[in-house]
């Protein structure tokens, strides 16, 4: 299992950072060769299903996800979203929190990424790649900058 986490500062309010992070289709704009499709009608809530399809030509895989916790930020209370990965190839979970900061907000991301058939020997590489990729997604969606080196 490849576990990683990071935190990013955003100049956006917690509500706006949350709104942008939960526009699932926009995640694909920051991940090469990936398109995200939401399979359930809006609005997002527990039970929302979406799939990130990563492909180069005919070769590719689906990362199917379900929202299992949905708590948008309210006032000083942080927001929290947890996704369970339901695919046949990519499994695990991801969660993020959005909390108020002195200026803007802080987004914390924590993920356990598993790829069926990939030996544990590759967990370090997968963790590093996941951290870089998802940090890039968060920065692009929220206009953020790093708050830590993790």
TrEMBL record:
Gene3D superfamilies: 3.30.530.20. This is Immediate-early protein 2. It comes from Streptomyces alfalfae.
């Amino acid at each position: 299992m490849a576990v990683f986490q990071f935190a990013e500062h955003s100049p956006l309010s917690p509500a706006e950072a949350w709104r942008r992070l939960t526009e699932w289709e926009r995640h694909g704009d920051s991940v090469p060769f990936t398109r995200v499709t939401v399979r359930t009608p809006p609005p997002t809530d527990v039970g929302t299903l979406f799939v990130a399809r990563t492909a180069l030509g005919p070769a590719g895989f689906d990362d199917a996800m379900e929202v299992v916790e949905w708590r948008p930020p309210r006032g000083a209370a942080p927001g929290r979203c947890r996704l369970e990965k339901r695919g046949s190839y990519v499994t695990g979970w991801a969660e993020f929190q959005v909390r108020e900061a002195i200026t803007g907000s802080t987004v914390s991301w924590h993920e356990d990424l598993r790829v069926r058939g990939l030996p544990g020997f590759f967990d370090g590489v997968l963790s590093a790649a996941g951290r870089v990729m998802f940090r890039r997604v968060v920065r692009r969606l929220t206009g953020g900058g790093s708050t830590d080196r993790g």
